[in-house]
Amino acid sequence: MTIWVCVSNDFNTKTILQSIIECGMGQNHNLNTLEAMRKKVQQMGTKGATILVTTRLEQVASIMETHPAYRLIKLSQDYSWSLFKHHAFGPNREEREEIVAIGKEIVRKCVGSPLAIKTLGSLLCDEIEVTQWQNIKGSEFWNIREESSITGEETSIMRALKLSYFNLELSLGKIFFFLCNFSQRF
Description:
mainly alpha, 2 domains, about 0% strand
């Protein structure tokens, strides 16, 4: 049996246990207390069962009393630029010198995160005006200080993703906002 449960930053233990029970045994088991749910999940586990935890945070691995088997490292500058170039310019687009220079500065701010690099490269793929590239590079989002338990590199990733969201066309931004709120109910 394989069960996949997503645990977000603001998790609720009872909700997580309920999800595990429902995935493994179906709905309506009338387990109302945290202890009853914990015992039911414990019964489902067999000798040799494995729990795979993926996280960006060392703190989560520590809480789970495990050691990371794999540590993902950030992309090198060369790989970062190659990924950005692929998404921003594609195979047939002219790479104007002034836009390339701005693009390299944007990539540096993405601190080797493939998600941030791909997102911003894709955002700029149809932009031929230097001013739009400069707006992304010089945006105040890069300077925002956020209260967070995550490292500075991950905070930079979130800044890049916020930057891409706020540069969506107005109609797409509204749709994205609607869908994000809608999906949290499931």
